[in-house]
Amino acid sequence: MLMKAIDTLHVSAVGPDNIQPGQTFEINDGDGAILHERGLAVPVEGGSDPDPAPTLKARAK
After folding, report:
1. Burial class of residue 11 in the structure, from the number of CB atoms within 10 Å of its CB (0-12 exposed, 13-18 middle, 19+ buried)
2. Exposed, middle or buried, 1 (CB in 10 Å: 0-12/13-18/19+)?
3. Phi and psi (nearest 5°) for 45?
4. Which of 13, 5, 8, 15 is nearest to 30 (CA)?
5. b/e burial code for range 27-52 (CB count within 10 A of at least 16 → b)
6. pLDDT for residue 50 is more than 50
7. Strand 2-5, strand 41-43: pairing
8. What pLDDT, in 10s, does the model give residues 10-42?
9. In the structure, what pLDDT confidence band is assigned to residue 45 with cuts at 50, 70 and 90?
């Protein structure tokens, strides 16, 4: 499954380096679904963004 990172990730199964936001990477379907559910990456299909970027929440002061 081809995914595009929304946040900086480190997935040891992908490689030793961090995956930067906007970078695409290959991962198995099960792990890709988990990253998508957690809002960390989106699937890449046909070059279009399937989901809009998540809205950021304000930090508590």
Report:
1. middle
2. middle
3. -135, 120
4. 13
5. beeeebeebbeeebbbbbeeeeeeee
6. no
7. antiparallel
8. 988 888 999 999 999 999 999 999 999 999 999
9. confident
